[in-house]
Amino acid sequence: MSGSCWGVSSTKKETAMADKRVKMPGPSRVADLLAAVFRGTATEKCLKEGKVWLVWESAVGPQIAGRARPVSFRDGTLTVAVSSAPWMQQLTFLKKGITEQLNARLGEVVVRDIYLKAGKCERAASPTEPEKPRRKSLSAEERQKIADQTDAVSDQELRGALAELLARHMETRSTD
Asked: Are residues 38 and 114 in the same domain?
């Protein structure tokens, strides 16, 4: 007699059916969902260009990153502020290699050229000590606005995640 610890008997057929069940995929990352939503739009291009700031230090190394920082991006040209004339001259010779490193980390050709200019190269604030935003309570009107904005999303789990994201944004948004 086959059985289980719950006193319910199971047959070979039931066991075989359970083995054939398709596993549900895990939750998707928000970045992947946004990439899918914005695919083929101008926003997709902006998101790709914005990744340059995220990969800059790993692409050029800490020594260069301490003396040169990206400041803008337009039509495939990355503008980089450089701390001094000698560093600007050195980076002129390294532009091709830096461009290749950036594009390799971005996974596609996003940066076609680098324009160097004199400027301050202050490092971004340390990510280890982020300032915690103040949260405010949402009004009934704000809650209704969130509901209206997420109502068109058919997937209940995604709708809930978007509503939570919007709520957090509104809770921490400056009221100035």
From this structure: yes
